[in-house]
Each structure stands twice: as C-alpha cells, then as structure tokens.
Specification:
Order of helices and strands: HHHHHHHEEHHHHHHHH
Distance between the termini: 26 Å
Strand content: under 5%
Number of helices: 15
Largest sheet: 2 strands, antiparallel
Strand order of the largest sheet: 1-2
Structural class: mainly alpha
Radius of gyration: 21 Å
Length: about 350
C-alpha cells in the first residue's frame, strides 16, 4: 500500500488560472467532491429531520461519539503516509483504555501518572511495530496484525474476562466529559491533533520526507533520507495517538472491558481511505481524513434517526470502505498515468527542505 507523491492530483493555481469557470469547477470536483457531498448530506438530513438532526444535542452526540474514531483515523493515517499500515490501532485501544482505569483502581496510581504510563506504553508498542517492519522486514499488515492480536490477548488476560469498575477521580473523568463553548472537549482535542499533524506534514521537512518515503522508499534512501528512522517514528506517533484514544475512551466509558474497542478499527480505516480521495486526492492527508470521518458520522446519525436497524452502522462502514478503496485505487492509477507526463519533484523538494 504505497502512498503517493507530494505533487498529488490537486490542480495548481497556475493551472486553474488558465481555465474558464466551468472547467475550473470540473477540475476541482474530484478534489472537493467529498466535502460537497458531506455538506449536501447534512442539508438533506436537516430538511428531512428538522426536529432532531440540526440540533445542538445531536451535534454534541456526533462529536462525542466520533472523536475517538477521528483520533484513531489520524493515528492510522501517519504510517499510511509512508506506505505502511498499522492495525494495532483497533487492538491497542482495548488494552490502553483498560490500563488507564486499572492502574488507578487496582494499583492506586494517580490519574496523571496513569495517563503518562499508558502513553509511554503506546509509544513503545509503536516502536516495536516500527522495528518489526523496518529491521525485521516483516510486512506491516502481518506485523501489526500479530502485535495487535497479542495486545488483545494481554487485555483479556489482564481483565480475566471481567469488567474493571470503580470510582474514578473527577479530573480523569473531565478529560472527555468537560465542555468548551458548549461542545464536548474531545472535539477540540481532535482539532488540535489535526492542526499539529497538518502543519508537520505540509510545512516541515519531516512531512516531505514521509511523503517521499511513501512514494518511493528506494529513491528516498538514494537521496539521503533516512527511511528506516522516519518510518519507525511514524509508527511511534501512531502508537502514541492510539494510546491517547484509549485514555479518552476510558474517561468516557468509566469502565474497562475487553469487548470494547475493536469495533473502532473499521470506521477508523474507512475515514483514512475516504480521506485519500479528497482535498489532496491520491495521498493520505489530515483534512481529508477528518472529512471522511465526518461523512460517516453524519450518514450514520441520519440513518439511525430514521429508525435504522442495529446492523446499519457496520453495513454502512463496510460498504463505504469498499467504495473508498475503489476510488483510492482509481486515483492511484490516475497519478501513475500523470507521472508519464510530469517530472517527479517529490524527492527533490524534500531534499531541498
């Protein structure tokens, strides 16, 4: 699963200036089509469900429910930029949310220290994944699936199949329970994570290096980019952000159980793959990922308010994933075709930075 070049399929300003208005719209439609679809979907549900959908309560519910998925999607996106995949996001969150609670209830550790321990362990698992992929040269799908399965086994052993229940400190509960400007604070966490990742990927050399590695790791190495180091760092960042999602889940649920967490894996991946088809089509990007999660959240919320059955959400997620991968594959083929007529500037731009 290779990412694509930093010169993805979005049109340049000079290209748009040469086109008439109608041609500009046609050229921009593949870039912002998913954004437009998201807005249209929200408008349709607002018209059809005026009493329930366009309400502050519904907005709070969507943000609260999907903030954890959005965080996991951003975590999954980082290794995908380098052409790798991290499946431990779905398994790790199971163990991390249980540890965040059990460290406090069973071992009497103060909640700030418990959070730090979970984040360090998450980074450590990310480091392990990076070493398995880059040093042991194990395919990232196999390596992270194996690591994730072990984490899930540890979570079941740790809980012995029982829920972890007890009275948690108010400060820990406020991590996800507090509100800012009337909205769940978890939404502002996602915004902060997104801004930091966007700035790093778009404006810092590390971002260009990661995209260059995803486009062609051999060419990146030949141009002096330390491929192994940056790929491992991508997995460490993914593992840390997954642990953050685990802490948020623990604060929200207030109970630890091994049966919770795996259901986040599919929608998180759907969000990332959908994101690669918009804003900067052909490559994984931050705002595209957020739009991908948003259209899932709006679609599922609207369908459920229409009285959709319990199986609607997994059906919607699975169907959307297939469609997203299909669109991403088509976009990838367009990129390859475009490469025949445009010089590759990714490595040069990364090296100059």
């Amino acid at each position: 699963m290779n990412s694509v070049k930093s010169t993805a399929l979005e049109p340049t300003r000079s290209e748009l200036r040469r086109l008439p208005l109608g041609a500009r719209i046609v050229r921009l439609l593949p870039v912002y089509g998913l954004v437009v679809l998201t807005v249209l979907l929200a408008i349709i549900f607002t018209i059809l469900l005026p009493q329930t959908f366009p309400t502050v309560l519904n907005a709070r519910s969507i943000i609260s429910d999907k903030s954890i998925i959005a965080t996991l999607s951003l975590a999954a996106m980082i290794p995908m930029v380098t052409g790798k995949i991290d499946l431990t996001i779905g398994y790790g969150i199971v163990l991390w949310h249980m540890l965040a609670i059990s460290l406090q209830l069973w071992f009497g550790i103060p909640w700030p220290l418990a959070v730090v321990i979970v984040l360090v362990l998450g980074a450590g698992v990310g480091l392990l994944n990076g070493l398995l992929v880059e040093v042991a040269q194990i395919d990232s799908f196999i390596a992270t699936l194996g690591t994730g399965t072990v984490l899930y086994a540890v979570a079941m052993w740790h809980s012995q199949g029982h829920q972890i229940i007890g009275t948690l400190p108010d400060g820990f509960l406020a991590i996800s329970g507090a509100r800012l400007f009337g909205m769940p604070i978890t939404g502002f966490y996602v915004l902060l994570f997104s801004l930091v990742l966007w700035f790093m990927l778009e404006y810092l050399p590390i971002g260009r290096y990661l995209y260059a590695i995803g486009a062609n790791p051999k060419a990146a190495a030949l141009n002096g980019i330390p491929v192994r180091r940056y790929t491992v760092l991508a997995f460490v960042a993914s593992g840390t952000l997954t642990a953050v999602a685990g802490v948020l889940l623990a604060s929200k649920l207030r109970v630890g159980q091994a049966s919770v967490g795996l259901e986040f894996l599919l929608p998180a991946l759907v969000g990332v793959f959908l994101g690669s088809t918009t804003i900067k089509p052909g490559r994984f990007n931050v705002w595209g990922t957020i739009v991908g999660v948003a259209i899932l959240a709006i679609g599922i919320s609207g369908i459920q308010q229409f009285g959709g059955a319990f199986w609607v959400e997994p059906f919607f997620n699975g169907t959307t994933l297939v469609v997203a991968i299909g669109i991403a594959a088509y976009t990838q083929r367009r990129r390859v075709s475009a490469q025949r007529f445009a010089p590759n500037s990714t490595i040069r731009d990364a090296k100059q930075s």
